[in-house]
Amino acid sequence: MTTPVRILSVGAAAPDLRLPASEVAAAWDRSGSGGARGQTALCGPDEDVLTLAAAAAGRALDASGLQHDIVDGLWWGTTRPPFAEGPSHAVLAAALGLSSHSAGALCSGSPHAGMDALLGAADAVAAGTARVALVVAADALVPGTGTGYEARAGAAAAAMVLVSEEQGSAALTARVTRTQPVLDRYRGDREATTRDLYDSRLFREEIFMPIVREVGEQLAAFDVRAWSLPDPDGRLGAAVAKKLGVGTPASTTAYAAVGDTGAAAPLLGGVGALDAAGTVAIVGFGGGRATGVAITADAPVRGAARVADALAGGRPVSYTEALRARGQLTAAGETIPMGVPPESASFVRGADEILGLLGARCVDCGTINTPPSIHPHCISCGSTKFELVPMARRGVVHTFVVNHTMPAPFVAPLPLAVIDLADGARVMLQVTGRGDGLEIGTPVELVLRRYAYERGVPVYGFKAHAKTTAPSERPS
Amino acid sequence: MSWNRVAVVGAGLIKFGELFEQSYEQMAAGAFQAAVGSVDRGFEPSQVDAAFVATQRGTLWGQEGIGGNTVPTAIGLAGIPCTRIENACPSGSDAFRVGAMAVASGVHDVVLVIGVEKMRDKSTEEGLLSRAASGHPIFTRGETAPVLFAPFATRHMHEYGTTREMLASVAVKNHYNGARDPFAHFQNEITVDDVLASPPVCHPLHLLDCCPQTDGAAATLLVSAERAAEFTDRPVFVAGFGVATDHPYLHEKTTFTALKATTAAAERAYKMAGVEPAQIDCAEVHDCFTITEILDIEDLGFVEKGKGGVASLDGETSLQGRIPVNTSGGLLAKGHPIGASGVAQLTECWWQLRGDAGERQVEMRNGYALQHNVGGRGSGVSVVNILTTNA
């Protein structure tokens, strides 16, 4: 007898940048083709799958109302983790404030990884090895430039908190998987970008449609209210829905907002539909596998109503800005290396305090000293008695600058601000964006960002995200 | 406090600028020879008992391991005791303070204090700007030198209504003075509009709010006061000095409208010299950026807190003003070869006190001149030296 798997809360996140398909078409002189509709989300230079995962998982945890350190395990699915080999999972767990005892798994290697993560977490809850399991599916696809896939490859993340007790308002009620050892979209070893489909008709008729349709038909036996169906090219989602005899999939909204988000896509297309009672069917496809899951909600799931907002808006960018953001357009010449290499001792000493945004609260006077490792004595009273505390993630700008003069790899303009956090701590951090509209007193929230990428190591830390930056615009 | 009086009997510097054609050693020798040549009754180099050399960043010209031992050979005095002092932007002024203490203690009779800095042997990107990538990987990343002072400008403008025009007036005044200083890197006058229209470097600071990158060297010769008459009948004495530290990181600051290290160093120097700010006839202060001079003249007690911008705009710190500041052109026009800057400022004070400042000469009513540096990550250290002609 296994434990029922229930869903306590969900969350989603997308980067701010949007690449209109028309920009891609213009760049490759495809103005005559009909494919220049829609847009995709893409990561800025300081974002990647880990920062997206942290944002979505953070929202799901916030919606759950649970303390982060009671999570028993993190199951993270992403096609391409930030380290080809390395501490991707451990870094994300630390940035989320999970316990150092937390377990879980990193699933990767194809866009099916998001479903792998969901099933892995569900199995752990069902088996009783985890009472609270955090699932996050995140992707930031890097398509080959000039491929048809380029106007479709997006970036986003979706997360769920699974629990064993009768506290969530939804439950996993069915699952089905089919496999077929064939190539769809893939990336070979040592290749930088994902290859487009070999032949779209071959893919549709012999690979995608048979396997996805079979999984869908299995789920259709349930009274499905809303569907999340894979849509790799902007047409197949509707085509498979038609075969299944269901209406427009709920996932259409997410695809329209952020494109095909690979491993994130199935969850992203379904979590928003959990804002009402009924069954949501989620189908994921990739790497020669298709998996479907039925989730039945008795009532709206926490966080589901906020999913649409997380994907909406965004700032349209030009094709060249998109190339720079994806690292596919770089200036010639050497960049300035960090003063200490990112695999060195200072990063080992500082790992927890940087990723966990820890401060040392003085037991005698209450002052929060940060970072703790350089403050053996309290900055205010000289005491040596401290307790480590996670610092507040919200605050206001006390003063700021916008730096216009830095060598590569820095990109100007770069705003930096002294922030007074809600708990009284003061930090100085980079500010996301270009600093437009930044003022003394501007409220900010702290978000995980990639500060540097050097020697193959992504260096993560928190940045201030101003809440009153220029209003988001939809691309025309 | 019991200490022997210290006299400054010689001081000099080389013309500051982008000295691509000169080595570190050649610059050092040039400054030493200028100081030796300035001694009224002549000076035999072998009389030097010890040297203190200020060089802040050997890394800027590829000499990470630079020590105090390179200078004696360069100036023909191999064998003498020589110690390098590195204390951020106040390195030169702190070397002077330490040299003065060596004489005051009676350990040495004749001390050379020399500041030498190569700022331009590496490209700007590999040189000063590379600090954007050094330090703490998160809390200081992107922190070039202007980032250490521009937040104070933002906050000073917010709290006191200081304007960009007020900041610009500092650069205009210092370039006016620099145009009258044959040793200055920049010897051209500029206008407020020039400053306002210059490209942004680090909002709210623009290019002409910032000092240049300058190579240079300067030297002073200190002797015990009782031996001063061997060298000159116009000695200048060390009246007092102070050094103070403050939390070095910006997020550790409790105020962004004052530099606490300056205030504390100045209090110590004023107390040691037995003078009040109002008795200072002229001052060479740390104007790495325009906002820094505005903070300095407030923190040193020359103007009320918050009124530094207005005082600058009103000309209170000009050559004819109530308290002339940076008569040499300051770091903004004369340049900022870090280890040399403090020693060069002291040289200007020495000239002003002796009436040798030529076109830049200001009225010496009380016989006191003040020299000040501040720096070190987020202004974590300041040094103030006060010189006097009063016996």
Estimated share of beta-strand residues of chain B: 15-25%
The top level CATH class name of the largest domain in chain A: Alpha Beta
What's the rounded overall pLDDT mean of chain B? 96
In CATH terms, what is the architecture of the largest domain in chain A?
A: 3-Layer(aba) Sandwich
Number of strands of chain B: 11
State the share of residues found in helices of chain A, binned by percent. 10-25%
Rg value of chain A: 22 Å
Query: What is the percent of helical residues of chain B?
Result: 25-40%
Distance between the termini of chain B: 18 Å
- Which CATH first-tier class of chain B would you pick? Alpha Beta
The total of beta strands of chain A comes to 20
Strand arrangement across the biggest beta sheet of chain A: 5-4-6-7-1-8-11-10-9
What can be said about the biggest beta sheet of chain B?
Answer: 9 strands, mixed
Low-pLDDT stretches of chain B? none
Question: Within the CATH hierarchy, at the fold level, what is the topology of chain B?
Answer: Peroxisomal Thiolase, Chain A, domain 1
Give me the CATH fold name of the largest domain in chain A. Answer: Peroxisomal Thiolase, Chain A, domain 1
The oligomeric state is heterodimer
- Based on secondary structure, the structural category of chain A is alpha+beta
Per CATH, the superfamily of chain B is Thiolase/Chalcone synthase
For the largest beta-sheet of chain A, the strand count, sense and barrel status come to: 9 strands, mixed
- Main interface pair? A-B, 41 and 40 residues
